[in-house]
Design a protein that fits this description.
There is one protein chain. The protein is α+β, with helices and mostly antiparallel strands and 228 residues long. It has one domain. It is 27% helix and 25% strand. The protein is built from five helices and nine strands. The strands form two sheets. A five-stranded mixed β-barrel has the order 2-3-4-8-7. Strands 1-6-5 form a three-stranded mixed β-sheet, with no helix packed on it. Strand 2 and strand 3 form a beta hairpin. The protein is globular. The chain starts with a helix and ends with a helix.
Length: 228
Amino acid sequence: MTRNTKLLGVAAALSFAAVLFFGLYVVRTTVWGTKNPDELLRGTAAIQLSLEEQDAPYFADGIRSLRELEEASLVVVKARVEGERVMSLRSTETGIRIETIYQDATGSLREGETVYLVEPFSIVSDEFYSATNGYQMVREGEEYLFFLNRLQAVEGYEFSRKERISFLPSTAKYSRYCLSSDETAAAIIRTGAERLFYRAYRDYALLSEDENAVSVYQKIREEIRQAY
């Protein structure tokens, strides 16, 4: 079995799970969204941060190293956040332009192409930033290294053109690394029942109170700096 074949098998299984529990739902509801989260955040500083951990088997949040992250991903690309951005009830669809392809088990991507990242976050009722397991939204104009899986579907389902070029993060916690700006990798410390406001954590790479998760992020980020 070749390395690419192994990668395809592992990541395809994860992607298939993603479509059953997350992927199809968020892509279908995204088309009904009307708000751009960047515009919303520019217009108010009152958005609160909702921290919640949930059982999300469609994301490989149990990984502990760059090697495991690569094996859990069909695609590894350097890309810049550009183009349209549409927020729905549970997710945000973000256009990203591919600059460099490091791994593409789909065999379908081209450098310079714009594809869509289905980000597992939304700003609920224009009041609460809510994300799956600490996911931090990417910023307009910034460059990132992304670890992604393609949407998969049950037999007979026919993807739209946009769905065919839409991707999910391989893991909600460890799939995006900013290359053009320094992000803070630290655990969020909360005192009692105080309210947290998103603006205070906009520069964080991961939105989590879990020090172990932050340590894993820091470790993988250092491995990336040496490998890419």
